[in-house]
Every structure is written in structure tokens, then in C-alpha cells.
Amino acid sequence: MKKRIALLLAAVMVLGLAACGGKTEEPAASEPVQTEEAPEAEASGEETPAAEPAGDGSLAKVAFITQSLANPSQAYAWKLIQQYAADYGFEVTVFDEDYDAQNGVAAIGTCVSQGYVGIMINPTDPSAMIPAIQEAREAGVFVGIFSSELPEGFASTEYRDFACATNDYMCGEEAAKALMEAFPDGCKVVEVGGQSGHSAQILRHDGFFDTIDTAKVEVLDTKDCEAWATEDAMAIMEDFIVKHGEDIQAVFCHWDNGATGVIEALKAAEMNDVYVIGVDGCGAGYDQVKDGTQALCIGQSYQNMTTFSFECIQKLMNGETLPDEGVVYAPVDIVTKDNVETLPYPEW
Predict the structure, then answer these.
(1) CB contact at 8 A, 246 and 272
(2) DSSP character for 326?
């Protein structure tokens, strides 16, 4: 009897050891990092392809990564994106870079990890974003450049899926044509460029300089801003006035809110007859055209850029190939004092 009890106790001990050996202590799950912009994605238990909706009738997730919502054009774009997203079957989250490219890189990483279908991005530093964009595309996320473009050499579907923007080169061309029409015998002009290195700044500059007749138009000076900031444009214009004074007959400023700073500097110097050209088509540009302080406003259509971007993502999700290297240009309005009252007033 004692022998049987001993054998039974031994068997119980063996079973207990086996049970302990078969149980592995799992580490506690780390809490997902939360941001104000991006709510935590719900875990589905299944891996969903990044380029497809979840299949349960919910909206597909798309991100809008912008250089700064302090930029009026980007704040207006975000308003339109929210307005039209559901019409195309999308739920869109905004990520504000706050003019720091590393915030954009981090945002792209978040989009990849949380299963976003697509990304629309207007980057602070396009060159800095290329590696992160490539990683997103390799993960199956469709990436479109919004209201801008990647630098020369990267502006193709090898590096991004699409670009919906204004033809910024054409904006520079139109500015040059208007200047030469206003001054058929020639003039002296200065250029206040946009954010240095941004595709819009580069293309607007190139379009302008490739088009002007240098035999008649003398460029006294040109300088780019550190950011798309009115105060930067004003400071540059003040320097130009000190250096060139009354020789300045015209100013090509790359954006309307920058033209506001240019106009303020001209007013302070009592230079009231300078021909000012701006690009964007915002409320400030329209108002300045109306009151005669800005001669010309080359207006962009953010509504078209928004809907074109959503259409591109839809087509890519459906397996369609986009033509023309995925580039879709939104039309522009040439706004002058003669037609400003006939055009819809911009909401930004």
C-alpha cells in the first residue's frame, strides 16, 4: 500500500513539473503611443492589406500630412479634405509637421503601422521625406504629393504614386507674361521667393526666369524665404528697398500672403506705384487686387486638388494605372481688377 501511495505522489509531481514547463511567461503588451491627431487603431486580430478597406463597411483610412496648419492654404485644404472625404469612402486624419520634417517622417511611420490606405502629403522638406515615403509604398500604402511635388529626379511614380497640384512652373510663366505685357518697353523687378527648397518655390522661380525677356526685364535682386511667412517676405522686401529704392518697378512674390508683407514694406517706404504679382488665390490676394495694391493674383484650386487626390487613391485601390506619371494639375485663375468681382471669393 505504501508503495502504491509513493508511486501516485511521484506521478503527481511529474505532471506538475510538466505543466510548469509548458507555460511561458509572456511579457506585458506595451501601450500604443497616442497622438492628438491620430486615434488608436482597433486591433482586428487579422492582418488587413494596407491598400484595401477593412471589408466591414467602414471607411478606409487616409492621412493628410501638412507642413503646417498655420499656413492658411493648408488649413483651407484640410477643411476641403474633411468636406469631401466621406463622398469617396475615406476617413482622413491630419498630421501637422509644424515645419519640422521629422514630424512628417514620424507621421508616415504611424500611418504604416496603423494600416492606412493612402497618404496625401505637402511636406516641409520634400527631400527628407523620400526614404519614409518609399518605406510606406513598400508596405502597400499609396502616397500622393499634395499641392507640391518632390524634387527634380524624384518626381516620378518610382518615388511616389501621384501628385495633385497646381502647375507651379506655369504660375511663374504667367507672372512673367503679365509683367512683360504691363511693361512692353521693359522694367526692373525683384523676386521674393517662397520657402527655400520647396517645389513650389523652385518651379515658380524657374517658370518666371525661363519666360522673361532678359533683354528688357532686369532682375535687380532675388531672395527666398525660410518659410511661407508674411513677415519673412516683408523683411526681404525692406532689404530690397534699402538696396534698390526707387529703381524697383515690379515685384514677383511667390504667394499672396507674402505679397501682403511686400505691400506693407512698400507702403512704409511710400512706394505706391510698384506692380506686385502674387500666387495662390487666397482672400488676401483677392482683397489686394480689389484695392489696387496687388496688380495680379494667380489663383489655385484647392477643391480640385482635393477631389483629384481622392480619385487617384480610389483608382489605385482598384488596380488602375494613372497616366502622365500620376501628375494631375488643377486649373488656375488669372485674377485682375477687371475680373475679380466675377470670380467666387476664396474661403481662405
Answers:
(1) no
(2) G
- Would you say residue 1 has pLDDT above 80? no
**pLDDT digits over 270-283, tens only?**
999 999 999 999 99
pLDDT digits (tens, 9 = 90+) for 63-93: 999 999 998 889 999 999 999 999 999 999 9
Instruction: Report the distance separating Cα 188 and Cα 127, nearest Å.
Output: 34
DSSP assignment letter at 239: H
Give the C-alpha separation, 199 to 69, whole Å.
Answer: 18
Beta strands in the chain (DSSP E): 60-66, 90-96, 118-122, 142-146, 162-166, 187-195, 217-225, 250-253, 275-280, 296-299, 327-330, 333-335
In what order do the strands lie in the sheet containing 275-280? 217-225, 187-195, 250-253, 275-280, 296-299, 333-335
Question: Which distant-in-sequence residues (6+ apart) come within 8 Å of 347 by Cβ?
Answer: 76, 79, 283
Tens-digit pLDDT profile for residues 132-185:
999 999 999 999 999 988 988 898 999 999 999 989 999 999 999 999 999 999
- One-character DSSP codes across 139-181: TT-EEEEESS-PPTTT-STTT-SEEEEE-HHHHHHHHHHHHHH
CA distance 195 to 192: 10
Above pLDDT 90, what percent of the chain? 74
Contact (CB, 8 A) for 128 and 105: yes
Dihedral sign (CA 329, 179, 224, 233): negative
